[in-house]
Amino acid sequence: MTLASLDTPALVVDVPRLDENLRRVAEDLAGAGVLLRPHWKTSKCLQVARRQRALGAEGFTCSTPGEVEALGEAGHRGLLWAHLPVGAAKVAFAVGAVRRYGTTLMVDSVEVAEPLAAALSEAGLVADLLLEVDTGLHRTGVDPSAARLVASGLRGLPSLRLRGVMTHEGHLYGFGAQRSTLDAAAVSSAQLLVAVADDLRADGHEIDIVSVGSTPGLAAGPYVPGVTEARPGTYVFGDGNQVRLGSCELSSCALTVLTRVVSSQREGTVIVDAGSKALSSDAVTAESGYGLVLGLDGAPLPDVSFARANEEHGFLVGRGTDGLRVGDLLRVLPHHACATVNMWSELVAMDGDGTYERWPVVARH
Ligand SMILES: Cc1ncc(COP(=O)(O)O)c(C=O)c1O
User: Fold this and answer.
1) Deepest in the core among 14, 166, 179, 324, taking most CB within 10 A?
2) Is the pTM of this model over 0.90?
3) b/e for 159-194, b at 16 or more Cβ within 10 A?
4) Is any atom of ligand 1 closer than 6 Å to the C-beta of 213?
5) Residue 107 C-alpha to ligand 1 middle, in angstroms?
6) Do the beta carbons of residue 157 and residue 113 sit within 8 Å?
7) Cα 231 from Cα 37, distance rounded (Å)
């Protein structure tokens, strides 16, 4: 079985590359004594989770209730729900997730924690809790200067056991290709988090988890003394954003959209059968459009760019399109793997020997 025999568009995983990405990161972190709790939002695929687990992942990080439930029902434990459970439905889900799977919860304020504590207490449960700290993204997370105050407020609440601190160093995506500056910022974020953990310990909190999490920061942040856990997500597949940030090589990217030229009516443009429902335009670096256009061999096509998209049509432009004919197969490296996977119901997992399996993508919403 070859790529050429698949119908298009298809979201294809290169399994040997996937396995190599999983193995390398698992080994590096294990060598440093840092636990791996990968973010599962990237693959949302139980086959990928099984492979991560087999290589020593201690558990998984999740964004949505659907991800927590899918992993929990599949028997995975060590789950961290890394989103703020606000509103009655989320609080009820959190209580169920603690009861059914022993899920660890995350808060960034006493305000978020109070209804949780009340509901857990009423259910007769105690949950492990991480305090989210903002180390530069300025999204959610308590400012480091206010962490002691929030932690002391949490101490007064029933049914929540503060176990540690965590951060998502998403601001590293803003560093473009300045690799040394990016690594230095990853180290600073981790050091800030470790310092908060030390402050909380000094106040008498039993902090045994100090958790960083991002793929751009993966080369540096987890190796800062005092960090105990890493939660990368995108590392499983890599993508165009990670290549441009210097977090991985094009040759290790494991996820591409297979697409076919379906029309070439205008000079300088060809139309492919993958559009905005097949690819994400979420480019966090200077690149625009819908991804990097590759040949079937995985090498970038010179002078061809994926300029724009309708839902099921992609517009490839540039001098290089002159050589493309109706029926030609191409691959597109997505800018953002996680956002791309979420648009698909299945991954076509191609093994090195030409065999393939269809792996469902679950918990998409
Ligand atoms: C809380 C949290 N942890 C970990 C990650 C993983 O980061 P990345 O996608 O850079 O691997 C994310 C990504 O959004 C996140 O929000």
Assistant:
1) 166
2) yes
3) bbebbbbbbbbbbbbebeeeeeebbebbebbbbbbb
4) yes
5) 16
6) yes
7) 5
First to last CA, the chain: 32
- Last residue of some domain: 185, 216, 236? 236
233 touches ligand 1 (CB under 6 Å): yes
318: pLDDT strictly greater than 90:
yes
Residue range 193-232, pLDDT digits in tens: 999 999 999 999 999 999 999 999 999 999 999 999 999 9
Pocket of ligand 1 contains residue 293 by CB under 6 Å: no
Token pair for 58: 């201690």
- CA pair distance 30, 24, nearest whole angstrom: 10
Cα–Cα dist 301/63, whole Å: 35
DSSP state of 277: T
**How far apart are the C-alpha atoms of 151 and 142, rounded to whole Å?**
10
Same domain, 162 and 277: no
124 and 192 share a domain?
A: yes
pLDDT digits (tens, 9 = 90+) for 14-23: 999 999 999 9
Same domain membership, residue 318 and residue 216: no
pLDDT for the residue 138 = 98
In a domain, 256, yes or no: yes
Residue 172 CA: nearest ligand 1 atom is 10
Same domain, 22 and 166: yes
Give yes or no for residue 256 CB within 6 A of ligand 1. no
Q: Look at residue 148 and tell me whether its pLDDT is greater than 90.
A: yes
Please check whether residue 294 is in contact with residue 259, taking contact to mean a CB–CB distance below 8 angstroms. no
Ligand 1, pocket-test mutation among 84, 168, 335, most atoms within 8 A of CB? 168
As for how many domains the chain has, the answer is 2
Amino acid at position 8, single letter: T
Q: Cis peptide before 9, with omega less than 30 degrees from 0?
A: yes
